[in-house]
Design goal:
64% of the residues lie in helices and 0% in strands. The chain contains four helices and no strands.
Length: 121
């Protein structure tokens, strides 16, 4: 293929792309200054202390949930879930993503030795 033909074909392709881009409807408010506003808004929200606290609280809640779930799986594997709650508790075969709460494992072990041992409150 000779160079002028290749260049003409490339020019035609670029014109087609330009026409396609021009024919697309822009989102209302879209512009270079508008995108700068979006970037500035993201920066404000990203650095706000409440957003940091939300993420940290979420992480704490996730880790707490995983430990609760692991404890319930551990109890379910020992057939220690009340019959009426078996349908809502995790299955004894569920995957644990944390270790069961030590307060529960210790309390159940204590019950083996002393039937008056207390369970966690």
């Amino acid at each position: 293929m000779n160079r002028p033909t290749r260049a003409q074909r490339r020019l035609a392709d670029l014109r087609t792309i330009a026409e396609e881009l021009d024919s697309r409807e822009r989102t209302p408010g879209w512009s270079i200054p508008g995108s700068k506003v979006e970037e500035a808004m993201r920066a404000v929200v990203r650095t706000h202390p409440v957003v940091r606290r939300l993420v940290e609280d979420f992480d704490t809640a996730r880790r707490t949930f995983q430990q609760y779930e692991a404890t319930l799986i551990w109890l379910a594997a020992r057939d220690m879930i009340p019959e009426d709650l078996i349908g809502v508790a995790p299955s004894r075969n569920a995957t644990r993503f944390a270790e069961p709460g030590e307060e529960w494992t210790s309390a159940v072990e204590a019950l083996r030795r002393d039937c008056d041992a207390l369970l966690p409150g």
